[in-house]
Each structure stands twice: as structure tokens, then as C-alpha cells.
């Protein structure tokens, strides 16, 4: 039985890469943009202090997505490998096991979080002026956390199923719903951060329903099926998904560290500036993750086929795409700093606005480097080398950035906070390149895969 990944093999590898990359990046952009719009509505409708409250709450949302990523990325890779081997039964079982597991986990997270809401708000760094707003925001997000987790997992697996554009449509549906509901709940009804949280939660409900419908259709290779708890597959899924999960979770931890450092060395107003930076940083990071996710299903598929020529070629394509995106992003941030900051901060707040322009430019240097670490880590995950992927993710996402943050503060004081991320990403590039150079691919290829590889070479030359 052919699957949707196999059907696309009549296209050249470059065209297949673009076919997966484009919707992945667009989906990530839409996700990031509607997150930004959420921040803009909060800032304009509830005030800049409310924007800071949402930023302080972000590590919890990072935790929710990290939990989803722990299973979703790994499941996507395992499913793609099974599809490459034409083992549809095992692919369906891995798919069903993944969704059941994260659904159960989401219920447990909701119960624990609601029972410890005050403690969570304080742990995240709530101040006297933001405590109640943080509780209002989190109490609603917690109720919807299951939809966050399932929606994201289904979005990733839809692409693995061979329908990358459906993933984009699902994200667009969620984005448009969130923007429309934000307008009514925050601006028209004046519900403040509560309204923003309800809008975000409902948008995830809509996208979850959209993706679920796809997997009940006949044109889907993947379908829900009976499954036994396969601990071997579950272990593989967790090991592969761990690096991406750590990246997301570490992002939340780093936000907490930055918020606490800003409060200590500069003051509460600096958190507002950092909130703006976080929204743009998310957009840039999601662009790089989108490029990586465009590469990963194909890389895993050909790794399952033991076609190492295509696997290596996909990595080169991904690195070229990251280089282009990094340079373009940096130029945009340098040229359009004022309009970007204006979206969130009123220029009448003269000192805050000027300070935000200054620190945003300092932070933007990191955008030149982060994409390389993200895609190399994602590449290792796609070929089942989770240890290497985890080391890179932990380095850039937690260990090196934490050391860099404290070192830059020690050397430059509060100003060092804003350059610490750029220093960290630059150091991590060397770690990523060392792993890439010292770990060549080794798979015993069959004659069939060798013939496929030779055919791909001829096709590439002809194109």
C-alpha cells in the first residue's frame, strides 16, 4: 500500500522540500503573528502592565507546549520511519498511542495546576501589581491546555501524513478565530487578560476539531486504531521528542531568569521592553522551527528508506534556507525597529519607547545565529540521534544561555542582559558544528535504496 509520502516521490527532492517547508514556515508565522496580535490587543486594551503580566505567564504555556512536543515530535519521526518502511499498521498504532497519552497528561496537568494556581503565579515571578492579572490569565489557559497539546500534535502529524497545506489551513483557522475573538473580548467587552486567554483557548478548540476531522477521512493514511501500550515505541518517541521539548521548556525557564534579572538590575518597566522582544523572538524562532519541520518528515522518511544521499542533501537545503532567513530577519529588525516597537508601546511613553528601541537592536544580533542550532538539533532528532540533539538543545536553550546571562551581567551590568542571548547562540554554533562534523551517517543500505539513491542523483543532475 502506498502512503501519501510515497505518492509525492514523483517530484524532485528540492520541490518536495519546498512543498513541506513553505506550509511549515507559514504555519509557524501565523502562530507567531496571532500570538503577537494577542499581545497587541492586551497592550492597547488593558495597558502595558497587562502585557507584562502575560509575559510573566508565558513559561507556563511553554511548559504545556513542551509536554506536547515531548510526544509529538517523537511520534512524528517514528510514524514517518514506519511510513518509509510501508508499515501502515505500526504507524497508526504509534499515532493513536501518542494522542491518547497527551490527552491523559493534559487532564493531570489541569488538575494539578488549578489546585496550585497561587503558588505557580508566585513561582513565575508575579509582582504585587501583576499577581491578580496573572492568576486571571492562567486559570483560563489551564482549562484549555488539553486543546493546546492535542492541536499542536495533530498539526505536526498532519504534515507527516503527507498533507502539509492542511496544517497551514488549521493554523489559519485558529489564528483568525483568535484575532476576531481578541477584538471582541479584549477591546469591545473590556475583559482584559481574561478575554485574551478565552480567545486563545477557543482558537485551539477550533483547530483541534479541524485536524481531527482529517484523520477520519478516507484520504488520510493515518487513522485512529486500537493499540497496545508499546513501551518500546513510547521510549523511542520520548527520546526523540526530548530535545525539542527541552528547547521549549528551556525557553520558559530562560524567560523566568530574564524577568527576575530585569527586576533586580533594571526595574519592572524593563519587563515591558522584554515582552516586546519575546514576541519578535518567538516569530524568528518559529521561522527556524518551521524550516526544521519542513525538513524533518522527509529526512526521517528517507532515513527509514536508508537513502542517505537524500538525507544529507535535505540537511544542506535546510542550512541554506536558515542562512537566508537569518540575514533577512536581522535586516528587517534593524531597519524597522521603530514600527515594530510602536505596535506594543505608545511613543508618548518617551523613555520606555526609546529604551525599548535600544535594547531591541542589541538583542536582534542573536537572530543571525539561532537558526543554525535549531536546524542541526532537529536534523539529529529526525535520524534518531536524540542524545546529540538533546545536548545542542540543552546548550542553547538552558545551560549556555544561563551562563552567558550571568557572565554578561557580571561584566556589563544590566546592559549585559540584552546581549547575552547573542553570545550564547554564537557559542552554541561551534558545539553544533563539532557534532555535525564528527558524526557522519552510518546505515547499512540495501541494493534497492542504493538504486533509489543513484536515481535521485541522476534526477538532481537533470534538474
TrEMBL record:
- What are the coiled-coil residue ranges? none
The record's listing under CDD domains reads: MATE_MepA_like
Is Cytoplasm set as a keyword in this record? Answer: no
Alphabetized InterPro entries for the sequence: MATE_fam (IPR002528), MATE_MepA-like (IPR045070), MATE_MepA_subfamily (IPR051327), MdtK-like (IPR048279)
Q: Name one Pfam family in it.
A: MatE
Q: Which UniProt keywords apply?
A: Antibiotic resistance, Cell membrane, Membrane, Transmembrane, Transmembrane helix, Transport
What kind of membrane protein is this, topologically? Multi-pass membrane protein
Q: What is this protein called?
A: Multidrug export protein MepA
Species of origin: Asaccharospora irregularis DSM 2635
